[in-house]
Amino acid sequence: MSTFLNVFPKQYCGCSCVLLFSAFALSSWPSATAQTRESSRSATVLHQLNDSIEELVERVSPTVVQILVTGYGASEETQRGQTDLLVGRRRAIGSGVIVDPEGYIITNAHVVNGAQNIEVLVPPPPAPTVSGAAPEGPQGRTYQARIVGTSREIDLAVIKIDGHGLPSLSIRNSMPPARQGEMVFAFGSPEGLRNTVTMGVVSAVARQPDPDSPLVYVQTDTPINPGNSGGALVNANGDLVGINTFILSSSGGNQGLGFAIPEGVVASAYPQLVKFGHIHQPAIGALVQTITPELAAALRLKRDFGVIISDISPGGPADTAGIKIQDVVVSVDGVAISSLPQFAQSLYLHKTGDHAAIEIFRGADRLKINVGLAERPHKEDSLIDLADPVKNLVRPLDILGVQLTLDLAKELPDLRIPTGVIVAARTLGARTGEIPLQTGDVIHGLNATPITSLDGLRAALAAMKPGDPVALQIERHEQIFYVSFTR
């Protein structure tokens, strides 16, 4: 009481002071009680939020894996002011999401690019802890993985491990789109720290970092760092919002600018990657880019926004229909087009063989042109037509191989070596998951012996005994490296 009395003038000392204190205490009692109740309610809400987040993490964490990739890649080295491009062995760490209990995993294409060997660490199921202590025991199980399909255009890949009954995260087109301000959680292995979760919000739902690319991303301030690539971005329900892909950073670390491939894109791409190994996209045979005010002024265009035709494939659907360079796209099928993503999406809604009504400005004229949509060519699709299931079977490798001819090499202009045996398809066999070959790979050598024909490849394999080491020199995506296994 002495402390309380000291703040008042001395004339209030004695009984009057005691009465004053009692009256003050009584008058403040309802307010103190209300504050206590409010504090209790706040604590309850915080505990409920905490419990919900813990439950979400327990449910999602077992579906997010760490991916360890070894292979060859390019890097730059600067000495005495000179920069050299070096190709050497690389080791990369990324993340992935199990989307099928039988071991199918979604990740980024750049995570597995140039991979010779892919290891996947699947975390153990969550174990109950005692008094908050960390669970003891193994850190998970390691599997060897093979690539099922990749799309470098949208930076997605599907890999497969020989697992069964694994925890998985569903992907589906029926998911409502992300909402700006929505709470989200990023799961992955930033800087190799596996089984990490961070929290933030959706900063933007359809961000287009590159104005000349039709790709849009979910932007988030959730802390994302190198190693998070391929991991899951989920909402408060534990539903997949997107696949974490890249960050914008001047320091190399998180600056609150993370980007994820939207779940809708993943849901559309996944079944195609599993079935074909790549994405089937309808196209009109034209290159379209974003109109900037500077471009509009220089070309004296009728509008300074939207998209413009900048190139036409000779003999393609757009060329045949009469589309010309510098045509400005106004609408597709009656829907106004103001951005490159809108244009790409309008075509993606069509099937191969459909027609799209494209309205354009050509100078001062406004025209409507019906353009057919064709399948964007994939060299893997044409290769399978050349392969006979019996004559082209290379049983020890579980592949259908096609010998490169001069004419075929000309159709594949990206090849660095125009001879060898190209993998037209993979077949189901006892060792399909063990031999790390992909459709489109070109076999140039076996154990330092050049391979220039299908018969030569078969003969080299036949001369080997079971258990002998095998090193195939292959070319993939303009990179040449070795894959190894035992006969």
Write structural notes for this entry.
The protein has 487 residues and is an alpha+beta fold. The chain folds into four domains: 2-59; 62-124 and 139-276, Beta Barrel (Thrombin, subunit H), CATH 2.40.10.120; 282-375, Pdz3 Domain (Roll); 379-486, Pdz3 Domain. The protein has helices at 2-5, 15-60, 109-112, 263-276, 293-299, 317-321, 340-348, 379-386, 406-411, 454-462; strands spanning 64-79, 82-100, 104-107, 115-122, 141-151, 156-161, 183-188, 196-207, 217-220, 232-235, 240-247, 258-262, 282-283, 286-290, 307-312, 328-332, 335-336, 355-362, 365-372, 374-375, 393-394, 399-403, 421-426, 442-446, 449-450, 469-476, 479-486. Strands 21, 22, 23, 24, 25, 26 and 27 form a seven-stranded antiparallel sheet that branches. Strand 16 (328-332) and strand 17 form a beta hairpin. The chain is flat.
Assign a percent range to the helix content. 10-25%
Instruction: Label the overall shape.
Output: flat
Assign the CATH architecture of the largest domain.
Answer: Beta Barrel
* Radius of gyration from CA coordinates: 30 Å
Number of strands: 27
Record keyword descriptors for this entry.
487 residues; alpha+beta; Thrombin, subunit H; Pdz3 Domain; 4 domains; seven-stranded antiparallel sheet; six-stranded antiparallel barrel; 10 helices; 27 strands; 23% helix; 36% strand; flat; disordered N terminus
Brief overview:
With 487 residues, this protein is an alpha+beta fold.
How would the blueprint of this fold be written?
Layout: H1 2-5, H2 15-60, E1 64-79, E2 82-100, E3 104-107, H3 109-112, E4 115-122, E5 141-151, E6 156-161, E7 183-188, E8 196-207, E9 217-220, E10 232-235, E11 240-247, E12 258-262, H4 263-276, E13 282-283, E14 286-290, H5 293-299, E15 307-312, H6 317-321, E16 328-332, E17 335-336, H7 340-348, E18 355-362, E19 365-372, E20 374-375, H8 379-386, E21 393-394, E22 399-403, H9 406-411, E23 421-426, E24 442-446, E25 449-450, H10 454-462, E26 469-476, E27 479-486
Antiparallel strand pairs: 1-2, 1-4, 2-3, 3-6, 4-5, 5-6, 7-8, 7-10, 8-9, 9-12, 10-11, 11-12, 13-20, 14-15, 15-16, 16-17, 16-18, 18-19, 21-22, 22-23, 23-24, 24-25, 24-26, 26-27
